[in-house]
Amino acid sequence: MPELLRLVDDGVEATIDPSAGGRITSLRFGDHEVVGGSGDPDEDPSTAGGIFAMVPWAGRWRGHRAHGLGRDRVWRVDGSDLVLDIVDGPLPGSARLRYRVGPRALHIGLEWQPAATGAPAVLGLHPWLRREVSGSAAVVELPAEFMLERGDDHLPTGRRVPVPPGPWDDCFRLRSAPVVRWPGVLALQLEADTPWWVVYTERESAICLEPQTAPPDALDRADADVDLHRRSIRLSLHAGETSAVG
């Protein structure tokens, strides 16, 4: 099995496990660990914690396992990247995952090359962030245009609705980058090159803000403004003092 990888720069340290879906198992900004988990010992470990890639589909897709096929596989180390070939399932292809750290920032890039020319995909990144950091409870700032209504099957109906009070397990279209603040301790601004985010705040131990190239179940149900042929997604987490980010 590949050894753990560690990336260190000014004020940030990330630990990556290629054998556990290529996920980040620890992310520290200064003295503060921000990676969390669901807190449910019965949940599949491949979905219950860390920061991991969702490929070749993200979130829920009717009739298929949630969060794609890359989350519990061994990714091979290729230079400073991680690579995974997916030859089974409905959407075979090859994924490339890049983690980079800079001064108080983590940068993630996920790329996908389908085996079949023109095949669709939905890519995503799934960070679990601690509900509490150094005694401070997280506050989520979500600059949403709208939320997609969630049906009884937990899949979007396609109807756009105003944002209700949380907790959420829902897909949003955002106007700008969301921010997670732990008042008096730390703030994280999450910048992605997609407006679609799934936000999960139903657990007491951690929260998830997941950028996706399209909403859940978009491979079966997609609006005209959804691109199912995007081949990459980017996410950056920028840390700052609570008064300096956002």
Automatic annotation (TrEMBL):
InterPro entries, A to Z: Gal_mutarotase_sf_dom, GH-type_carb-bd
Annotated GO MF terms: carbohydrate binding; catalytic activity
UniProt GO BP: carbohydrate metabolic process
SUPFAM superfamilies referenced in this protein's UniProt entry, alphabetically: Galactose mutarotase-like
Protein name per its UniProtKB record: Aldose 1-epimerase
Source species of the chain: Aeromicrobium piscarium
Lineage: Bacteria, Bacillati, Actinomycetota, Actinomycetes, Propionibacteriales
